[in-house]
């Protein structure tokens, strides 16, 4: 199928400006299609499977490819392979599958291959609670692979955000040539809400810059002033080498100290130097707040309601919701921490992101967690009670 | 006769029964009728997995004129139960003055004398020709009892989701159920039961 | 010989990636040479060839070759190659792998790529041992043979890789040796030229690890062993099982036509290219 034909087919599929009832997982799939995804390699796992099912159905209709691989290791491997050969690619999984993907996520990071992984979180560890919600992979997403690792991780909190952040994940992965993880969860994945999708031509879709020098001059891993390098794909005449071994700017393995340091610094700096562009934090009633609720994902939904209830009871409380959780928005959260004297961090785990808040806080203020890990959402009432308990 | 869903006012509905009664689909239909055709904000969630096979299964719908923050139900305005087990299990989730609607053949022990006890499954079997559409009969009754939306919106949503070849039966089921709901509401009003929630 | 190496040089990346990592006398270089001559003989465009590998001595082949090359994680080259092939079906995708990489850690990917009849050529350089990590036993180490992790002799049974490939669904299966370099090149050429999953097992030598531990001598001696124990398919047909007991058969072992994933998937795409696409509204409502 030609590129023009693919575009026409995608337009036929996509319905904009029409209210549609859809699940978060469906919204992820539509986001992927809108972002230009042409390859999905995956393995069935609850509660993420709807994403695979949708793309199995739609990808061939626009000339893309879907394949159900033999396991999650193979899934992410096929996704990286497809990306190297020029297709915007993704996979979707949940906890156990995400664990299996960690080694190859490190490969994608090292070899600077764009790809998107949606992890629809369920209760863990191990097989855990396959049909129940959790936010247990916040730190795994950051530190899951071996070695230093600075991935980009996004956390949606509504069906619409599943769509928006999947597109953003593709855009960031292309721009920074990095794997990008979307941490959804069981509630978001299966919940249905009304979404009206924006017209396709109003969406910002980013594709990695292509090289314009002749192949003999091309360096696939060129270190540029802004640490972002153009990217050729297999079959375009550049014939480059990719490896998970530490490599020079051409991609050839190296053991020269300077080249090793240059490579690893490039990997770190390409996100660190663009943190303002990557960070995305939503503030809610924070202007005069003395109490901060820092919440993300489906927990943020409860927090948003809770702070409104608490405001009626005259608590000066606001909410900080990071939509990009990694790299953590240190500057923004750090500044806000200056203004408050109590922080509540509700999470569907035994305390993960609270550590980041404590790391950033320079003053001696109370930072307390509200943790639930029984497979159910934290309720607004629980957050309100916590506020009352800490501020009698 | 449309009920205003006032600002900050949420309506929380749970459709419950046993797996295989089509209640998840009924929840989706109601969410679609309210969200797509009535322009409300909706959030629909459900129980998944082994819990949904046998035992009590449920589909929850939150409806609001304003943005829905917390998407799950906390205090039900209405509980529909098509089995005794689900009625027993979820009755306590109803808020004070919440409405209980049950199938009169399946739920024999009523936890409240204010319940609407209606023969959904029997009506589906005898008048729509198959017990399979009991979900649509009961859903339509619920919509009418709560005065959630006009029948037309509901019917549109039902027909959109009805499998090919079952449109007529589903249409009949929707009309029967809606009538049952309107009638039940009228009777209750005559008896001056309070069901403002 | 001179002409042979001139051909090889056209396909190497001499400036950036040499010297190579292999021990003097290693068979992997011969296997690589045979592969290059096969590709050259087929007249393939370098830009349309991808060579994918995992981890191990054999997996270092791609770095020296002037194609689109992908050196991946341990055991996973077939899974990466599957993605490359589907994203760019016009490309010839060749996987080079060792016995540990392909059959131990990558065993699952191997049988499934073969089962799907995925349009990939898979070349296994079988030297019966883990060379790079220092002589540990692999799924092909023969019974009783010594290795650094089997110091009392191998007590596990071994895989017959060619038989495994055939059973799993490969549609072309061949075996050659690094001694019979010209035949090896012909077998690789046939494999690369085919559609579907084609598999070539290359019997090679690891004198540094396997040879040393099992006192099988130098590279020359081990390659001589290949010459003495290889029986061509046509000759083997006339021999009794007893006569073939310590021998192995070389040549094209198995060939079959079967639909493959790539062409079957293309049929689905073509169907939608003719018909109009279903509307999203209808689908989300089904």
What would you say this structure looks like, in words?
The complex is a heterotrimer of chains A (392), B (197) and C (286). Chain A is α/β, with parallel strands linked by helices and 392 residues long. Chain A is built from 14 helices and 16 strands. Chain B has a single domain (10-190), classed as Pyruvate-ferredoxin oxidoreductase, PFOR, domain III (Pyruvate-ferredoxin Oxidoreductase, domain 3), CATH 3.40.920. Chain B has a six-stranded mixed beta sheet, with helices on both faces. In chain B, α3 (120-127) packs across α4 (134-145). Chain B starts with 9 loop residues before the first strand and ends in a 7-residue tail after the last helix. Chain C is built from 13 helices and ten strands. The radius of gyration of chain C is 20 Å and the shape is globular. The chains are: A alpha/beta (392), B alpha/beta (197), C alpha/beta (286). At the A-C interface, α1, β1, α4, α5 and β10 of A face β2, α4, α6, α12 and α13 of C. β10 (241-243) of chain A pairs parallel with β2 (68-71) of chain C, so a sheet runs across the interface.
What topology emerges from the helices and strands here?
The complex is a heterotrimer of chains A (392), B (197) and C (286).
Chain A lengths: L2 H11 L5 E5 H12 L3 E4 L6 H10 L6 E4 L3 H13 L4 E5 L1 H16 L4 E9 L5 E5 L4 H6 L8 E3 L4 H18 L2 E7 H5 L1 E5 L44 E3 L13 H16 L2 H4 L2 E4 L6 E4 L3 H15 L4 E6 L1 E3 L3 H8 L4 E6 L6 H7 L5 E6 L8 H11 L2
Chain B lengths: L9 E9 L4 H15 L3 E6 L9 E9 L11 E6 L2 H7 L3 E10 L12 E3 L1 H8 L6 H12 L5 H11 L5 H24 L7
Parallel strand pairs in B: 1-4, 4-5, 5-6
Antiparallel strand pairs in B: 1-3, 2-3
Helix pairs in contact in B: 1-4, 1-5, 3-4, 3-6, 4-6, 5-6
Chain C lengths: L1 H8 L4 H4 L10 H15 L6 E5 L14 E4 L5 H11 L4 E7 H7 L1 H10 L4 E6 L2 E2 L5 E2 L23 H8 L3 E6 L3 H13 L4 E6 L3 H7 L5 H11 E3 H4 L11 E8 L5 H14 L5 H5 L2
Parallel strand pairs in C: 1-2, 1-3, 3-4, 4-8, 7-8, 9-10
Antiparallel strand pairs in C: 5-6, 7-10
Termini separation of chain B comes to 16 Å
State the shape of chain B: globular
How would you classify the quaternary structure?
heterotrimer
The count of β-strands of chain B is 6
Question: Summary?
Answer:
Chain B is α/β, with parallel strands linked by helices. In chain B, 39% of the residues lie in helices and 22% in strands.
